[in-house]
Amino acid sequence: MSIEDYIADLDQRFFQNQLSAPFKTELKQLPLDRKDVLEFVERTFRFMHMGKVSAKDISLITAQALGTLMARILPGGWEGKVPPVTLPGRHIAMDELLKNSEFGQKENVDMLDIGCGFPPYTTLDTAKLFPNWNITGVDPSLPLYLLYDDQGNYATLDENKQTVYFQPALPSLENWNELLSDYEGTKRRFEALLEELLQNPTTCRYALPRVEINPILQHETAKLRFKNGGIGQVDIEPQDVIRCFNVLIYFDNPFFERALSWFSDHLKEGGMLLIGANWTGSSESYYSIYRKLKGKLIKSEFAFSLDCIAPFAIIPWYANHDDDAQTKELMDYVSRIRSDDAFMQEFYALHDADRKRLNICARDENGYYGGPDPNMGPHAMWGGIVSLLQGLNDAGLNTKAAEVLKASGLNVTVNAVGHVSVAF
Ligand SMILES: C[S@@+](CC[C@H](N)C(=O)[O-])C[C@H]1O[C@@H](n2cnc3c(N)ncnc32)[C@H](O)[C@@H]1O
Question: What is the CA(296)–ligand 1 centre distance, in A?
C-alpha cells in the first residue's frame, strides 16, 4: 500500500474524508516500514474518533508530531526501551494538588515517584515544594554516565559506555529531528565524546561539553533518595503517596492491573496513588486517584484538564496499547463534552480567539487548527499553551464542562487545581 492510500484509508475510516491537505502532507513522512508507528497512528485516530474529535479540531502540530517525531520517540525507536522523556515543571499542577490534599501540610510524608525519568526533574520539583517529606525516586534507567555535548544536548550511557538515550537541550520537534535524523551517528558521537571527556575531564561543574559519573548521587539529600528499579522490581517500604506519571501509557492493561496490585501492597492505610499523564506545565493532564481504605485500593476520582478536549500535543491519545483503559475513560468524558453543542460554541468562541491572539495553532482560512509559528521558540509556545488552559479555566469553562458531564449522569466537580474531576 502506498503512503497516500494508507492516509486516505485512515481519513475515510476515522474522519469522513475531512482531514485537511496540509495535515495529510505532514503524515506522508510516516515510515511505512515501522509497524509500531503505523499502529500508533491508527490507535491515535481511533481514540480521537472515540472522543468525537473532528478533523478541524486537530492542530497541524499533531500531524507534524505523528509524521516525524513518533518514529523517534516510541519504544520501537529505542530498541524497545521506554524513553525517560521528562521536563521540569511538568507536574506543577500535580504538586499543587498534593499541597491541597490531606498530606499537604504534614511533615515526613513518605512519597514514591516511580518511573521518575532522568534527569529526575519532576521529583526534584516535588522535593523542593515539600522539603520535609521523605521522597524516593525510582527508575530502571538511572544511568552511570550523563553526558552533555557543546550544545547542551544530553545522553545517558551505561556501564559498557553504550548510549542508552539522548535528548535535545530543548526537546522541540525541530531539535529532536536534528538529533535523530542520524540515530546511529548521534549515538556514536556521544560514545566518542564520553571517551574523550573521560581522558580529559573538565574541571568546571557546568562546562559544556561535560560528563557526570553516577549523576543521580548529586541530587540525593537526607530527605531525597533514588533507586534503580521499576514497578514490582524494587524493595520499598509502604508509602503515604505514590505517583506514577507518564509510565503506564507504555504498557497494556494486564500490566496496569498488576501495577495496581503492587501499588496497593506498597501503600500505607489511607495512602494516595496518582496515575496519569501530562505535558509541559501540566497541560493536557489526566489522572486517576486511588486511596487505600480498609486494606483495599479504591479508585476515588478521574480528573483532567480541559485542554484535553482540543490538545496541542498528543498526550490525551498517547497510548501504546489498544486496551489502554485510562485513554478510553478520558475519551468517554471528552466525547460527552464535545457532544454538547452549546458548550462547544462557547468553548470555540473563547479558545479560538485566544489561539489567534497568542498566535498558537490558530484556525486557518479553511477553519482547521493550524501549526506552530516557526519563529516562536518552544518555551514561548509552551508558556502560551499553559496560558490558553488558564484562560479556559478563568472563564469558568471547566465548571461548565463539569455541568455537561453532570447532566450526563456523572458525579463531577472542579478540583483544587481547576481540573474537571469525576468522583466515584
Ligand atoms: C516518559 S518517562 C516519565 C518520567 C516522569 N515520570 C515524567 O512524568 O516526566 C517514563 C519512565 O518510565 C520508566 N520505566 C520504564 N519501565 C518502567 C517500569 N516497569 N517501572 C517503572 N518505571 C519504568 C522509564 O525508564 C522512563 O524513565
Answer: 25
